Amino acid sequence: MTRRWTVLCGAFAVVLGASLWVSAEPKSTGGVKAFKPVQTTEHLMHGQKKLMGDIKSAIGEKDWESGEVCAWMLAECANVNHYQKDDAAYHGFAATMSSQCVELAGLIKKKDEKGAKDLVNAIGKTCGACHDQFEKK
Fold this sequence. Notes:
The protein is an all-alpha fold. It is 73% helix and 0% strand.
């Protein structure tokens, strides 16, 4: 197994574990268990930064399969961001990033290198704007 696939599998396990984790504290509604992230915001952001780097590398190397997997994982990480802060603007950034990553996965699947690179830059701007507003200094 290549190092990239090992990293991808490890990152996927983290995202899957975070998405499956439920706590006894949050209340459940409508038969759906309440979600509680298992990582701090800082750890989640570190993972997202790693995924962005992997996506950039995959696009540059034309490793479309790995790039698409990472884009989908990053979209789910952005969804987890909704649970990190109770703030409408923060939720807006998370929703925008998630949508951008879903679109990115589609571009990578089509092997649209230019479109993917442009969207990676746009996602970086979304992240930067959120960090400007919310990152602890």
